[in-house]
């Protein structure tokens, strides 16, 4: 699989997946009704502080596992005790895949929702739900097509990276300048930083504040993208943690700026919370300031952001899915895991189309429930935080110095308290972001994030108990004999149920060697054809981890 290795490509991937406008703008109305300005500002700061503990803990782990293919799936397997290795990989892999699919669908849905708002502004008519769903399907399909066919063209790829960075940086700046010049009577700083609004029907201010945290939680996700896109670059032990930290800082800085900008653009809060012109609160702010034409131009900025973010998330989803398929977790895993240079230009095109199909199916939920966007975003926040917390928890509670050596980016003595805060926040988030947002609760306003989460976790654990525990991870791919971990045969690079060949490094005795070379002791490493300095570095680190694993069994 082709990976983002240039600094600009790395920055583009991180900034795109952690797109702040995609998280903040669509959820403005929900947060204004559940806490108002004070919760938007300080809730985002609080969530960012809690999320920073997760980002730091992941960076610490990533630094100790350079050149490791499989991302969080492989991290969880390596950090878990023997009896938990297979189930932890299964749970993390599938939950991560579900979170990315849901995230790609939510980006496409935000695009569709704002597009229909533009139609309403232009025509004066409110589009029916099926039009929103149709736009969602078209955009999701376009995400899949870009992932499958355009990513292999260097010129187009580089151009897209440039556009994505410029769009995500200039977009908030244009929004800031527009509001700063157009709003002649901005609200006071006291109102922005202290006003509390409650139009949820719940009487408890504390409960309402918890509901309002969902905006920040959805925004501050996706900073793990460098783990999947940068693992094989030179000096990955430092560059990957650096990418995680940069992604987090960019999200925090731009998110805080965008929230304050939107709040200072509000002149009539009741009109913004109950939009009549566009149906979307964030758009209503601009409708009052710059009229229909100017608002349409701002919508173009918003939907462009949603588009680039959705395309980036789908790409990440296809890569995570491919990593999961390599381990044999999918039916016909050989088909979905295959990466052909002519098909998708080194990208897992088949897995990308599978993600696209699932994303389109999720969009159909809008036909039966209008709060689907809030449910999707809450589900993404919960699922990703759970995915992040598993390797962190394994590192905290099952720490084994033989299996894990800290890298150049290490938290030192602060690792344990930071990890404990990260895990606590992730667990609390499961309950917080599953809370119903409106009272009285009806089928139309219920927060279905809890249903999505319970359904997803139930399917993952149920499939493990009734099926996967009998075969997942027991059989080393490639047809050779493997290293046996108790009752498990595994490889540090690729491992699974069936022989999934393309690009998967495996351990075997006999056969072809790595880069055409064979070790004198008869241990061959298969799966790589040509070696350069980076490959040799990867082999060295891989053998080092293999030695640690073998020592742990003595």
From TrEMBL:
Cellular location(s): Membrane
Organism: Linnemannia elongata AG-77
Protein name: Amino acid transporter
Keyword Membrane belongs to the record: yes
Protein keywords: Membrane, Transmembrane, Transmembrane helix, Transport
Transmembrane intervals: 38-68, 89-118, 130-153, 165-182, 244-266, 286-309, 351-369, 375-398, 418-436, 448-466
Membrane topology: Multi-pass membrane protein
InterPro entries, sorted: AA/rel_permease1 (IPR002293)
Main location as per UniProt: membrane
